[in-house]
Every structure is written in structure tokens, then in C-alpha cells.
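## tool: complex_structure
## caller: assistant
## args:
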Amino acid sequence: MMDYFGAIWPDESIRRVASVGLSDDALLSSRSLEVVQAWCGVLQQLRSFAAAWRPPEGFVRPAPQVINDAIKYLGEFRDRFPEHPPLRAAVGPDGEIAIEWQWDGGKEYAEVELTGPNEMEAMYVPASGQAQHRTSQLRLPGGEPDNLMIAGFVLIQHHDSALSADERDNFVLAQ
Amino acid sequence: MGDDASPIQTDEQVLRRVLFREDWYDPKLDVPIHRYAFRPMRQDSGGISVFRVRFIAASDLAAAGPNPAGYIVAALDVEDIRSIDLGTTRLSVVADPIEDLPGHALIPELNTTTPKKLAKEMQVRLAQLASRRIVYVPDHGNAA
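## result:
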């Protein structure tokens, strides 16, 4: 498994995110495979923003640090909530990056947006009712794990019954 | 065909042109269109642009844009847009004729000065609506 990810992503930080929790001889169920593929898909999207991607006229390419922050953030999220990969990463006109979750046929929406180096905003939009927002900074060395709070915020707004026991423990830490 | 400065009726539909990019349009998702497709750009100080179906076809609207990769076009019911009520703000659609293309209209509440959190929620609601009825997708190659 490591060889497979290593071939796709020579970058160690990405390889770590893509392979967490999988032993070299892991036999993947179809659900596990789906989850791994979902993580891989989003990470590939993020990498593509750094590589050959040409922003349309009037758009700003994301700063390398914002892309790296997004990858690091996803790594932490993946460590704590491995069963909940985001569905998409997108680049906004000013080079911001949004990482997105959808549930309930798309009626429920959650997003973490990296708006600049070390800056992130989270938003949860329920099927009905008002959206909720949090603003935070990525964790600084030795600092408080704000991004863990954001991760928990994103997920718990959804069905916390969907969380595994380990994930629920991680969420309690995040609150 | 009528006058595109005429007031917009509740039973009309409007079109929104969206850059054809794989991160903004993913047909595998329940909501394929990303909210960034509704994020006001520098020129959107008066609101974001839509076009009245009565005055322009989706394919003509897509063809008129400068993006080399093309555009997808979504149709939204005016009634649905006007029913988006975010507590302090209810969205509207108003005619705003321009020379370049017929049927131009604006959603004035979503502009470059709209408070960020409110704007983001509007964008999500509009992306959800737009994703229900995608009426034009380029038939060439892949998204940029």
C-alpha cells in the first residue's frame, strides 16, 4: 500500500494522509476502498492547484502556503475522522481554498475555507435554518489545536451518530 | 419577445453562467455546482448577474463568454430565488438591461459589499438551487 501511495505522491506529507490507518497488507472492503479513494481524490485536487493549474483571467492562484496548510489540515482531519473524507476541494477567485462536505442529498453543507496563510473559516449550512460560522487559525507550533475544533465543528453539526466510537472521542476532545 | 427592462415575473426562469472547471462543477456530487460559482467578482458591485430565459438561450449565453474551457449554464426559478430568506435578507431578482447580451438581470443582495458570512450562505443556497437544473454543459473535452 505504501508503495502505491508513494508512487502517486512522492511528497511525504500527502502520502501520510493517504495511508493513515492502513497496514501494508490491508484487505480493503468496498466501503474502505471508497473512503480511501475519496481522500485520494481530494488530495489530488489540492496537488493539482499547485502544479499545472492555470487560473482563469482575473483569478489568483492559491499561495503555496495555503495549499500546504490545506494538506496539513486534511492530514489532521484524516487522523481523527478517517471515515469522513470531504467530497471536493475548490479554489476561489482570490486564491482561497474551500474543502467541502455534503449530506442528505446535498441539503446539508459544511465547508472549511483556507483564506490565507494560517487563516481558516468554517461554515455549516443546515437543510433549513441559519448557517453557523467559526473563524480560526491553524494550529501554531505548541499552540492550541484550533483546527481540531473546526474539524469537530464541521462534523458534529451533521449526524454525530455517524461517527465511530474513536471519532466521537476525538470530537469530545474538539469541543 | 418584449422588453428586457420589463419587471421580472415570478414565473420566469433565469440562467447563471458558470466557469467550466472541474473543481466548480463535479457531476458526481448531489450539488455539482460549487458556491464559488456565485461569488461576486470585482465588477459585481450591483449584484451578481443572471439572464432571463425569455430573452436568451443557454447555449448562446455560454458561447458569449470568454473562458477558453467554456461554461456550464444552470436555470433557476425566480420564485425559488425570491424564496431564499436568510433572516435579515430576502433575495430578489431585478431587470438590468446591458448592451452586450439580452435579458441581463441582477440578484442585488449578493454583491461585493455583502457581509462575508451572509454572502457565503447566499452562495450555498444559490448553488443548491442551480444544481437542480443544469441546462447546458460543453460537449468538448474535460473541464479546466
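## assistant note: Chain B is about 20% helix and 20% strand. The longest helix of chain B spans residues 116-132. Handing back to user.
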